[in-house]
Amino acid sequence: MISTQLPALQIVVPLLAAPLCVIVRHPRTCWIIALVASWITFAVSIGLFIEVQNIGVISYAMGNWAPPWGIEYRIDSVNVYVILIVSSIGALVSSYALASVNVEIDKDRHYLFWASYLLCLTGLLGVTITGDAFNIFVFLEISSLSTYVLIALGRNRHALYAAFRYLILGTIGATFIVIGIGLLYLMTGTLNLYDLSSRLGDMSLTQPQLAALAFLTVGISLKLALFPLHLWLPNAYAFAPSVVTSFLAATATKVAVYLLLRFAYDVFGKSQVFSELPLGEVLLVLSIVAMFVASTVAIFQHDIKRMFAYSSIAQIGYITLGASFASQTALTASVVHLFNHAITKGGIFLLLGIVAIRLGQPTFKKIEGLGKLMPWTSAGLVICGLSLIGVPGTAGFISKWYLVLAVLEKGWWWLALMILASSLLAVLYVWRLVEAMYFSKTEISTLNTGASPSLSMYIIASLLAVSCIFFGFHTSFSVDGASEAAKALMEYTNR
Length: 495
Description:
Layout: H1 6-24, H2 27-55, E1 58-61, E2 72-75, H3 79-104, H4 110-129, H5 133-152, H6 158-188, H7 193-201, H8 207-223, H9 233-239, H10 242-267, H11 273-276, H12 279-299, H13 304-323, H14 328-359, H15 370-373, H16 375-389, H17 395-409, H18 413-438, H19 455-473, H20 478-494
Antiparallel strand pairs: 1-2
Helix pairs in contact: 1-2, 1-4, 2-3, 2-4, 3-4, 3-10, 3-14, 3-19, 4-5, 4-10, 5-6, 6-8, 6-9, 8-10, 9-10, 9-13, 10-13, 10-14, 10-20, 12-13, 12-18, 13-14, 13-18, 14-16, 14-17, 14-19, 14-20, 16-18, 16-19, 17-18, 17-19
């Protein structure tokens, strides 16, 4: 039955489609290949989600080699939630991308873009679905190497600088991760994550184990752009093509957060790292600093994509803040914010992609009076901005509500006030956007009439903007799925 092969199809479909784009090379055909592959991948992820809901954890042995000796794809309520996020964004972005890619990327490089896009999607899904530590590193490198290419494809010369900077820092992060995995293998003799968790739980916290945890935490934190390891992110988001920025902002850092949760709560969970080590306290401090420093820096940016890039660093701070508590409510807040931030920031950058086609690189100077020229696009940016702030009735409010509940469970009123204060900083930079679009007396004079956004761009961007409102009221999927994931993570820690 094909349903038994869904875990393999999740990876095989985009992986085989990538070299097919290189062979074909025709721009529109390559887009069709990527579109079909990404939507098949999304359909497979829905199938996996239903299977996990019905039968629980799925273990898929590659080549019929039983784990822990063979490579295992292991899907539970934690990673199936992230798989759905990545695959859905991948499908939506590919549906949006054709007109944007035509404008922002040279035509003779379109095949390279789509091949890299599919490889990046493959890598992110592979990191999430695999139950093997070394394959996490392999898939992480597939996604990273393709990401460097995607960023460098931007026509702005700064894109090459951003890609090279990310290459250097990403390589350092990957090196730390593979050293940590190597130390775990030397201590346990296994690379299977489930087996690793079992064997580490029977050991005391030794120096090699502590070193492995340290290397993995630093390497993964660099990948997820946790302050102060975020230096690669602002330029990468600002100067990459709009489609690339949208895809990376909604998926790449989310997968890295999943890795942090998987290692901290599952692999090292039985070692009681949160009770015996200051990991929680370190994450708490760095998260608070990220929330305030990144939001403050965002206020003073002139480039809008760069402003929202710094906003992403602050939002990552909210996610890791919940991860630092080691409580089910806090983890629910973290996991649901993976989803809510993905649709919010994905929507923002897709809308900015529409603006980029008409005006070029979006800056505050260029968008003065945009509300009159592009009313629907401007309205979408306002809706997503409200979700970013956490206004009641938006998806972002749900995340912050659960985060505040987790804080109050601990009796930390001071931290609840800090969350509110950092949200007020978001009000300032979102208001700058609103002010420029609606209250500026300057008329836009540099309109690009040679290209226009396609209907699909408006539909997909509007869909994500509307989702910010929809998931602010209907939380049966977002919160319930996150709650199940949080419950599973806590069970891994306490088993």
